[in-house]
Amino acid sequence: PRRIRAVALPGDGIGPEIMDAVQRMLAAAGARIDWEECEAGAGVALPGGLPGETMDAIASAGLVLKGPLQTSLGGGGKSANVTLRKHFELFANIRPARRLPGVVTPYADRDIDLVIVRENVEDLYAGIEHMQTPDVAQCLKLISRSGSRKIAEAAFALARAQGRSRVTCASKANIMKLSEGLFKEAFEEVAAAHPAIQSDHMIIDNLAHRLVLSPESFDVICTTNMNGDIISDLTAGLVGGLGLAPSANLGAGMALFEAVHGSAPDIAGQGLANPTALLLASLMMLRQAGLPSVAERLEHALYVTLEDGKELTPDLAGPTGIDAGSTSAFTDRVIS
Amino acid sequence: PRRIRAVALPGDGIGPEIMDAVQRMLAAAGARIDWEECEAGAGVALPGGLPGETMDAIASAGLVLKGPLQTSLGGGGKSANVTLRKHFELFANIRPARRLPGVVTPYADRDIDLVIVRENVEDLYAGIEHMQTPDVAQCLKLISRSGSRKIAEAAFALARAQGRSRVTCASKANIMKLSEGLFKEAFEEVAAAHPAIQSDHMIIDNLAHRLVLSPESFDVICTTNMNGDIISDLTAGLVGGLGLAPSANLGAGMALFEAVHGSAPDIAGQGLANPTALLLASLMMLRQAGLPSVAERLEHALYVTLEDGKELTPDLAGPTGIDAGSTSAFTDRVIS
Ligand SMILES: CC(C)[C@H](C(=O)O)[C@@H](O)C(=O)O
Ligand SMILES: CC(C)[C@H](C(=O)O)[C@@H](O)C(=O)O
């Protein structure tokens, strides 16, 4: 099998533990990855937490597996996560939500298998904000036709590549007729060029409502940045929570994979962290890098481990916590 | 018992049917209400759908029960719902989500009883939008300290009045540090003045996640307009859907009660509409108007009817639909 080269950013809090666990599982599954480990996050004595060497290594490798970064790291108050997305123009944020075996949720009997394709650089995340008076704040929501078309194209390309049949656009175009309206309009232009894939539109609040009522009825959802932020946490919750939620940030010639959860400083260093989200992110990376069979093998091992239900990390081990395992015990089970 | 005076706006689509049903139930329960029925919605030959006489009647009565209004009624593309909220400065939108007996949901075993207190006039709903170029749209998100303090005060006042112990502020202050940050800051100022009630803060995406995982752990949630729009549809879904979701819009000396759902033109006039959301809204109105015992009686009748599960409207009657009733059959059961 091919060798690939990737940057690893272990990041803050539980990041180093789960990165180590995932690298062990990938190696055991036979993934041949040359890791370049780089510093990022609160440990870096630099506002923003992203040294130039790290940025250079990312630019050169084009493939990144990233642990959680603390949200506020100085640097003008900008989030390091957002900085990475902007700097490398990672305009597409792909967030699958799929039912996992053995994970107890109110929806365990529903066949949930959806993907959120979230626009990742525009909207309220443009960071254009000011105080008009000491008592009035304004923030600019920015939507461009080209940005909206790009994310719609990404959604239809993903649907085609994964053999999915429907893409649902979600917006608040009934209230923000120009900005969210432009997003919807661009989506419809792109949809018209993909007649083989069904498309429809839902108002974002109604989407939140329908996702809770019948998540199994959704396939691909394409939406703006802020809407996607909220909705993707909702869908992560439907299948068991952020501890199980991977994400891909895609740009031109650049792909960064991450767990959606935070750095969980309260449990860091105690061997309690669940590496599943980062593992699932690494499987998305393997598939992106053209190593689907290794991904398949490891996914199978994860599913069997979850289904067995032994030595799961405490977040998954059920209310009694009896039989809970550590990060490394769980990792060993997946490997064996 | 006291007589009260209220404006009824039956509105569009299923509006007249459910308004009629609710007025019958209120009368049967002994509520003495002088209704002034006014025109609003698509039937009105006027852009915006809100005649001057209707606005005058509302201003004079100060108490309104409103059916659904079609979202787009001309009038510069403004939503009639939003126009009413703005014109009468109905700054607080109160949306309870409470488990109902007999309603089958994935959360039927959870004791859900929460209230969303949504800021109702600021934020992205200010309606300040323009096209910067034909391909770039901008929308202004506006947050004021006074508006934020008012809604926080409303949330704590509601918590106190209803004997609730905790108010959670939800914002995206980690990204929009000035605008959502101002909302959070104002909330914390107000919270400090209410030491008897617990308070905390959650990032809005994490709130969406936690609401799906453990809705029973929430009490009062105070949030900005757009966040509240999405989150309140989510919580409506948790307890059975928009067909069961009431809402109060409160301002100074003015209170407007409505169902959260739309006008459902596809089923209008067929006797299929579920009047429960508007009924629950009318119970909020009775309590607001100082008639809690009538509200109690009618609520009890509704709960018994739902629990019996006979002649429920088709949306509640389960997949087979056998035993489903019409709007009027359901109404008669509640009355009897
Ligand atoms: C950490 C934060 C900047 C980020 C976001 O708001 O996008 C997170 O919530 C996410 O969804 O990846
Ligand atoms: C109909 C629409 C204007 C409205 C809103 O966006 O507030 C609705 O979704 C609601 O929540 O009452």
From TrEMBL, chains A, B:
Isopropylmalate dehydrogenase-like domain span: 3-334
A GO term for molecular function: NAD binding
Catalysed reaction, written as an equation: D-threo-isocitrate + NADP(+) = 2-oxoglutarate + CO2 + NADPH
GO annotation, biological process: glyoxylate cycle; isocitrate metabolic process; tricarboxylic acid cycle
Enzyme class: oxidoreductase
Domain of life of the organism encoding this protein: Bacteria
Subunit composition and interactions: Homodimer.
Protein name as it appears in the record: Isocitrate dehydrogenase [NADP]
Span within the parent record: 2 to 337 of 482
